[in-house]
Structure formats: C-alpha cells, structure tokens
C-alpha cells in the first residue's frame, strides 16, 4: 500500500517521502522509484528553465544584432569594422545556441514522431551536401559518396536533415584542408546505417564519453574555437525518435572519426 500511495503522489506532481526501506524486492523497487522521481523532477526543472531562458535571450540578441548592422553601415574605419564584425559573429553564435536549445527542448518532449514517411537517406545526404558546397570548396574538402546508395527508412525528413547536417558540419570543422569526407550507407537484416567519416585528429580518449553531454565541445583545429556543444545531443534525441541511435567510432589516433546513424531496417 505504501508503494501504491507513493506512486499515486508522484503522478499528482507531489514530492512524497519514499516508503521505509527494507531488505525485500519491494524495498529495492521503492528505492528505484525514488531515484526515478528525483531524476524526472530534475529533468523537468532543467527543461522549464532552459525554455524560459532561451525565450528571454532572443530579444536582447536580436537587438544587439540589429544595432551592429546599423553601425556597420555608418562606421567605416577598419578598426570599427573589425570589432563590429566580432560582435556580429558572436551574436550569431548566441542566436544559434538559443535556437538549438529550443529545438532540443522541443524534441525531448516528443515520445514519437508525428507523421513519419518513407525516406531515402541518400536524398537527405545529397540535400545537405548541396547546402555545404561553398564551405567545403573553401576548405578544399571532397565528399566521397562512392559507397552511398539508396537506403530507405521511416522518418521525419526535416529532423533527418538536421541530424545529417550536424554530423557533416562536425566533419567539416575537424577536417584538415584538402582531405576527403567519406559518406556511406550499409544494411543488414535488422539495421540501416549511415556513416560520415572524416580524416581529422579524432576524438581524444578523455572526451569519448563526454561528447554527447549538453554544452560539451572540443576546440576546432583550425580556429581553436568551440561550438555550442548542443549538436550531438540534438542528433541523439532525433535518433531516439526514429528508434535508432548515433555512435561515434574513433579511428586510430590522427585518422579521424566516423559518426554512424543506425536505424531499424524497414520490413519488406
């Protein structure tokens, strides 16, 4: 009865005292339920805080960006233009972080995809590659798609584009100039996989278990700057909605990283 009352109180949003522990299976269950309550309570608080914070940030960020654009039109000295360009760059970075946080909080609340459709991952990749063409040319990067073939999954096209875009952007950011990024698909009886592999420095051992943590980011080799640290967490949530997963497969040191999206194979 104690467990029943405890579960009912949690359902009603209360913060009840956990049942008195004992040495039985029910006692262990009570402990697990208390741990679950604390985790859910903390997660809900963080989600609410993040959602409110990001909405509050959007107005000042927009104001700073607008003021910067006006000043750039009015001030012509090289030094002024330099500092205004820095303001504009950092404002865009904050704006990107705000938008990603809002997207992340939004999909974390979803239990299932709203209206999944039959989707070809090859088409998704080609769409993202077209959007990155100028950036890749600037770094003399080449996309190797010789092992990319039709791979159909059930999913949300918009979210899949976001996931692939995040992974390809990471590959671009960590790739040395004049190298290739290999994009491939493969499947077996149960799983369809999309892999994006770069030839960058790879993931240090100390970071392997941290890269999916919110706000954790590694410095980019070319600039030393870090990203928002939200991209991989966003990708993981997208893959959760697709009943799949995302894995990073570190290669030998200095040989790059492979990011792999795994989807359940469609039944014939």
Model description:
This protein has six helices and seven strands. With 268 residues, the protein is an alpha+beta fold. The protein has two domains: 109 residues, Orthogonal Bundle (Helix Hairpins), CATH 1.10.287; 148 residues, Heat Shock Protein 90, CATH 3.30.565.10. The protein has a five-stranded mixed β-sheet with strand order 2-4-5-7-6. A two-stranded antiparallel ribbon has the order 1-3.
CATH class of the largest domain: Alpha Beta
- Could you tell me the CATH topology label of the largest domain: Heat Shock Protein 90
Which architecture of the largest domain per CATH? 2-Layer Sandwich
Number of strands: 7
Q: Name the CATH superfamily classification of the largest domain.
A: Histidine kinase-like ATPase, C-terminal domain
What coarse outline follows from CA principal-axis ratios?
A: globular
* End-to-end separation: 48 Å
- Fraction of residues in helices? 40-55%
Order of helices and strands: HHHEHEEHEEHEE
What composes the largest sheet? 5 strands, mixed
Strand order of the largest sheet: 2-4-5-7-6
Low-confidence stretches: none
Count of discrete domains: 2
Q: Could you say which structural class the secondary elements and strand pairing correspond to?
A: alpha+beta
Question: How many DSSP helices?
Answer: 6
Report the mean per-residue pLDDT as an integer: 80
> Cα-atom Rg, whole angstroms?
23 Å
Beta-strand residue fraction: 5-15%
């Amino acid at each position: 009865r104690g467990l029943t009352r405890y579960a009912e109180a949690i359902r009603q949003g209360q913060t009840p005292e956990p049942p008195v522990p004992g040495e039985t299976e029910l006692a262990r269950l009570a402990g697990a339920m208390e741990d679950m309550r604390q985790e859910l309570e903390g997660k809900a608080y963080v989600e609410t805080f993040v959602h409110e914070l990001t909405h509050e940030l959007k107005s000042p960020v927009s104001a700073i960006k607008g003021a910067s654009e006006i000043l750039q039109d009015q001030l012509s000295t090289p030094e002024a233009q330099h500092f205004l360009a820095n303001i504009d760059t950092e404002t865009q970075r904050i704006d990107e972080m705000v938008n990603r946080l809002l997207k992340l909080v939004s999909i974390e609340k979803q239990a299932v995809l709203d209206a999944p459709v039959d989707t070809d991952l090859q088409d998704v990749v080609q769409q993202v590659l077209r959007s990155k063409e100028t950036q890749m040319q600037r770094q003399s990067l080449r996309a190797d798609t010789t092992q990319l073939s039709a791979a159909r999954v059930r999913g949300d096209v918009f979210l899949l584009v976001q996931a692939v875009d995040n992974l390809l952007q990471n590959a671009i950011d960590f790739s040395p100039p004049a190298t290739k990024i290999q994009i491939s698909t493969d499947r077996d009886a149960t799983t369809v996989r999309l892999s994006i592999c770069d030839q960058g420095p790879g993931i240090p051992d100390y970071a392997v278990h941290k890269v999916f943590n919110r706000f954790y980011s590694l410095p980019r080799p070319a600039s030393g700057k870090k990203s928002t640290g939200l991209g991989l967490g966003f990708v993981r949530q997208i893959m959760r909605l697709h009943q799949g997963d995302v894995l990073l497969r570190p290669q030998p040191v200095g040989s790059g990283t492979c990011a792999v999206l795994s989807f359940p194979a469609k039944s014939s």
